[in-house]
Amino acid sequence: MKKTLNRAEEFIKDKHHRSPEILDIEDILNEMDMVDRNIESNRKFYKVCLEELNRNTELTQRIEINLNRIKGHYELDIMKGKKRYSFKRKIGKQYRSSSGGMV
């Protein structure tokens, strides 16, 4: 028995490059069951995260498409019209007064 145990220890040491450790687990089957449940739970969580990521990617793509449509429809031509600084100041004052003085 001791010879078999020594051989097993040597095998573990050679394969994993460290000596075996004695674990303080009383019910190994219960621990294995907990590990299996944790693995399954992590797989489900991973699947949900991937679905959410795909959904958000699709939403982002839709937003980008709509933004490009808006940009395409409302192009401004700088050659038309003039800048009116007085109008700009009026708008700035109205904005400041409506936002409580915070700009």
Distance between the termini: 82 Å
Q: Give the helix level as a range of percent.
A: over 70%
The radius of gyration over CA amounts to 34 Å
Mean pLDDT: 82
Q: What's the tally of helices?
A: 3
Write the layout of secondary structure elements.
Elements: H1 2-16, H2 28-73, H3 85-98
Write up this protein.
With 103 residues, the protein is an all-alpha fold. It has a domain at 24-74. The chain has three helices and no strands. The protein has helices at residues 2-16, 28-73, 85-98. The N and C termini lie far apart (82 Å).
List keywords for this structure.
single chain, 103 residues, mainly alpha
Short description:
The chain has three helices and no strands. With 103 residues, it is mainly α.
